[in-house]
């Protein structure tokens, strides 16, 4: 029965249908009939189809909250910033991105260069770097899609990680460094979009109400002041783009921002515009517009100069702005110190201020596109009120997802409805009110001329009165300044005519005699002499930085002591003598000494010369300015034209007859330290093994990075020094093990003298180095510290700078505390209370490992062992003390090892002793700052702990 019950249904299923329905018995009887199953199946299928359809509709709609609140945050949680970026681009490229299903409100219409576009919200460069997802981005509702930056040759950009989310600030820091697949690859993608049949499109975007822009960059290995990469980009992409953006504002390509210099920018725009005008044919029968993208970190004076160049070059527009190298004080994220350009809401005030300044210096015919910190419709309207014809977004798109454009447009419509205006009306009112006009400049020039005439009259009267006083004998005791004003003969110099002022001619500098306390000021008459400048009565660089960037005066102590400056050079070329580079040598005519070009840090395309002692460094302004606010304010801020000429040298371009003026900045630091700092800025810090030679390099870098506010380099230098002067016991033990290992191998590794470490920590405000340095010093006797013999480890020639009186007192108190700790340590071990508490002595566990294998029947045997151990430790301590060594950490370590090494008969006691020694060493390490009164600031009076 069992076999037939099992196999008969199987036979029927295999060879033919059953004549009677087969019933299967179940443990629980079901009341449902089989005739209801099709209804249930149909219901489930219908529900699934409807749900899938709704999800598809919901997903394909860019307005969906699914993107902003589910998919985009999930992507941020799972993937890092750069990987998320790539996934988003690939998704849009594959056509899987959603679309904006709504038509733009008529109130959003705007016009650029006489052409109408549907809305003023565009996407900035940097998202689609290689032109992979143009159509997917246009489908999201953007009216302006900008691809790039694209460089002529492929390049990988900077090493990863290079993108950092500042989620607390809704911001991003990136240092991509123009990763690009090159002109050829991107150009082939643009050509693939072009339809093979039909009339030519009206715009390169292939949409009648949108614009396609290509952002042009330059390769990292191209010369800093070369314009060839941009000209090549114009010729390559001009036929396939509506707008070409000349990007001279990225902070992540060395030397790029230097092209914002007035002379270089003028040369660049002339060549780019000429290449555009010479394009043979274009896709749309309209030649692309040329737009310049600038940085937000420019000062007002520099923006005014840039505006003058833009007006003369007659380019079509400006984008304000790129990312910033500044870091606002209200940033909360821990990634804010990462190097690179900052974007997002924190930079809105900086970009908006730059836009307002530039709008007042440009005519209404040159539109400005606003970019920087725009994340809402209200932000966009703020830019419109400042004169921006349209806006671009980037960071908020990365945080909010594909619905960003539609959301901003909807919010903008609401804001415009409140005011009862259209976007075009708001922009036109602002542009008409704020834009530059020639009459404003004429009135400003007339005002300057009248002020110059008034000043000339006052100086004439002053000179006459001084001359009369000098003729009368000058009995008042006031120094005669006639010679200072007019030369050796005492005559008043001729003032330039107003016509020469109008022509912006620089009058010749009068010769000046030396009048104490004014320093001697001379100028060589040779045509090959370098230009000079006189001391200007301007606020100090430290006070300017403090007021502009909100940095405390305490942080500028080093800078205030010896700030950099541009001053009288009094340098001249000596064509009779050549240096190692084959160039004419340079002589300081004040001292007659020859100054040397640095062998490695002299770049022919450098845009600033730094002089330290008798060494000249020709480097790039942008490389200095991107790392340091000090150098940014020193070399990137514009100065009046005469000051610019006076604070520069006329440097020949190689062996040709062409020359250019390069600013000279005096750094009152050692040439070795400046060389090490600049090398670290260009190549990255390369530190050694914390020996004396390495310390000399690292301490110089730390001192100058603190002085010039290069925070990233300061952090790296401190981290390196902390390997030898750590804040934790484990690193200290590692340092000691390395030193002992080298000593056993017969190799010498001398750490720097603790005096130099303590003095450096005081100078650069690095208190974390002090405890280890004081402790290391306290291990030696006073005679070894203050009167070392040549055989002593602390002996140095020449001797290091002495400790301050307060630090000497701290050292004395610390040494006393150290000796007390050692004696207390040995006594506490002898009492046995720490040993017995952790491991009770019972016969099953308390076994002795002697040769006979006997068992300890009581703790007396172990107590005897400890007594012997205390005696041995005391002998070791006394022996070390005779040699001048006082090291509590070493004594505790030795006590923990002696039992297991020499008295290892009892396993329990050996383990207990090792654990006890480890606990004691941790306690000692934590007490070190209190020994030397380092936790009490300037108060070194004895305190009880």
TrEMBL record:
Keywords carried by this UniProt record: Flavoprotein, FMN, Membrane, Mitochondrion, Mitochondrion inner membrane, Oxidoreductase
Gene3D superfamilies in the cross-refs: Aldolase class I (3.20.20.70), Potassium Channel Kv1.1, Chain A (3.30.710.10)
Subcellular localization, as worded in the UniProt entry: Membrane; Mitochondrion inner membrane
EC number: 1.3.5.2
Superkingdom classification of source: Eukaryota
Cofactor annotation: FMN
Any one GO molecular function term: dihydroorotate dehydrogenase (quinone) activity
Pathway where it operates: Pyrimidine metabolism; UMP biosynthesis via de novo pathway; orotate from (S)-dihydroorotate (quinone route): step 1/1
PROSITE patterns per the UniProt record, alphabetical: DHODEHASE_1, DHODEHASE_2
Region annotated Disordered, chain positions: 499-546, 833-853
Protein name: Dihydroorotate dehydrogenase (quinone), mitochondrial
């Amino acid at each position: 029965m069992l076999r037939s019950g099992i196999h008969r249904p199987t036979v029927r299923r295999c060879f033919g249908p059953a004549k009677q329905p087969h019933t299967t018995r179940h443990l629980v009887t079901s009341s449902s009939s089989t005739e209801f199953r099709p209804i249930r199946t149909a219901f489930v299928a219908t529900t699934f189809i409807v749900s899938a359809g709704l999800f598809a509709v919901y997903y394909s709609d860019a307005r969906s909250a699914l993107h902003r609140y589910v998919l985009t945050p999930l992507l941020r949680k799972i993937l890092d910033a750069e990987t998320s970026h790539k996934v988003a681009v690939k998704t849009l490229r594959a056509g899987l991105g959603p679309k904006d299903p709504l038509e733009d409100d008529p109130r959003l219409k705007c016009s650029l260069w006489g052409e109408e576009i549907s809305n003023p919200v565009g996407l900035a460069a940097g998202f689609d770097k290689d032109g992979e997802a143009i159509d997917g981005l246009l489908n999201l509702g953007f009216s302006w899609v900008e691809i790039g930056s694209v460089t002529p040759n492929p390049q990988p950009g900077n090493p990863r990680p290079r993108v950092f989310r500042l989620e607390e600030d809704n911001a991003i820091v990136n240092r991509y460094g123009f990763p690009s697949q090159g002109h050829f690859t991107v150009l082939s993608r643009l050509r693939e979009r072009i339809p093979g049949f039909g009339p030519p499109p009206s715009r390169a975007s292939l949409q009648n109400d949108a614009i396609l822009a290509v952002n042009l960059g330059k390769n990292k290995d191209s010369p800093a002041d070369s314009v060839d990469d941009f000209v090549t980009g114009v010729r390559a992409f001009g036929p396939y783009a509506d707008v070409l953006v000349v990007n001279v504002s990225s902070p992540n390509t060395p030397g790029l921002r230097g092209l914002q210099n007035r002379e270089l920018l003028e040369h660049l725009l002339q060549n780019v515009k000429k290449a555009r005008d010479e394009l043979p044919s274009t896709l749309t029968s309209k030649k692309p517009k040329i737009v310049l993208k600038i940085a937000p970190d420019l000062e007002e004076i520099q923006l005014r100069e840039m505006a003058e160049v833009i007006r003369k070059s007659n380019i079509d527009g400006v984008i304000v702005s790129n990312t910033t190298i500044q870091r606002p004080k209200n940033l909360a994220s821990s990634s804010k110190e990462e190097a690179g350009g900052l974007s997002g809401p924190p930079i809105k005030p900086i970009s908006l201020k730059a836009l307002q300044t530039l709008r007042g210096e440009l005519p209404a015919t040159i539109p400005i596109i606003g970019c920087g910190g725009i994340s809402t419709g209200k932000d966009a309207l703020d830019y419109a009120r400042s004169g921006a014809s349209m806006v671009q977004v980037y960071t908020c798109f990365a945080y909010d997802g594909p619905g960003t454009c539609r959301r901003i447009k909807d919010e903008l419509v609401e804001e415009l409805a409140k005011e009862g205006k259209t976007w075009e009306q708001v922009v036109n009112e602002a542009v008409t009110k704020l834009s530059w006009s020639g009459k404003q400049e004429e009135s400003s020039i007339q005002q300057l001329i009248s002020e110059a005439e008034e000043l000339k009259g006052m100086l004439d009267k002053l000179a006459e009165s001084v001359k009369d006083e000098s003729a009368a004998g000058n009995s008042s005791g006031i120094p005669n300044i006639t010679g200072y004003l007019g030369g050796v003969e005492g005559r008043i110099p001729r003032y330039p005519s107003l016509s020469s002022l109008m022509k912006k001619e620089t009058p010749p500098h009068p010769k000046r005699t030396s009048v104490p306390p004014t320093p001697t000021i001379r100028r060589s008459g040779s045509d090959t002499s370098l230009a000079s400048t006189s001391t200007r009565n301007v606020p100090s660089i430290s006070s300017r930085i403090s007021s502009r960037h909100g940095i405390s005066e305490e942080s500028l102590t080093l800078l205030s002591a010896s700030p950099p400056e541009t001053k009288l050079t009094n340098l001249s070329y000596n064509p009779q003598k050549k240096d190692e580079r084959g160039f004419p040598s340079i002589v300081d005519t004040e001292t007659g000494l020859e100054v040397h070009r640095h062998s490695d840090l002299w770049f022919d395309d450098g845009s600033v010369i730094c002089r330290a002692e008798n060494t000249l460094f020709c480097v790039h302004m942008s490389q200095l300015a991107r790392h340091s606010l000090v150098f940014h304010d020193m070399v990137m801020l514009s100065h009046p034209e005469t000051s610019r000429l006076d604070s520069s040298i006329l440097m020949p371009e190689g062996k040709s007859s062409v020359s250019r003026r390069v600013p000279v900045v005096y750094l009152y630091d050692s040439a070795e330290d400046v060389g090490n700092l600049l090398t670290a800025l260009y190549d990255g810090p390369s530190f050694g093994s914390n020996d004396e030679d390495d310390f000399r390099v690292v301490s110089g870098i730390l001192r100058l990075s603190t002085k010039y506010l290069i925070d990233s380099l300061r952090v790296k230098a401190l981290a390196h020094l902390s390997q030898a002067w750590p804040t934790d016991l484990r690193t200290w033990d590692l340092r000691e093990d390395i030193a002992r290992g080298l000593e056993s191998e017969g190799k010498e590794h001398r750490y720097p003298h603790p005096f130099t470490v303590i003095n450096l920590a005081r100078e650069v405000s690095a208190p974390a180095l002090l405890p280890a340095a004081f402790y290391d010093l306290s291990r030696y006797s006073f005679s070894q510290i203050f009167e070392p013999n040549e055989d002593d480890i602390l002996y140095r020639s020449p001797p290091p700078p002495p400790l301050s009186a307060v630090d000497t007192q701290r050292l004395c108190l610390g040494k006393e505390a150290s000796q007390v700790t050692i004696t207390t340590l040995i006594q506490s071990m002898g009492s046995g209370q720490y040993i017995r508490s952790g491991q009770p002595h019972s016969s099953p566990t308390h076994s002795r490992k002697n040769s006979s294998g006997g068992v300890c029947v009581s703790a007396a045997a172990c107590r005897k062992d400890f007594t012997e151990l205390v005696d041995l430790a005391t002998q070791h301590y006394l022996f070390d003390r005779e040699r001048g060594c006082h090291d509590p950490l070493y004594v505790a370590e030795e006590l923990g090892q002696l039992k297991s090494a020499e008295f290892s008969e009892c396993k329990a006691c050996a383990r207990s002793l090792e654990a006890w020694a480890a606990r004691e060493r941790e306690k000692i390490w934590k007490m070190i700052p209190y020994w030397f009164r380092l936790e009490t600031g300037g108060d070194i009076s004895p305190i009880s702990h």
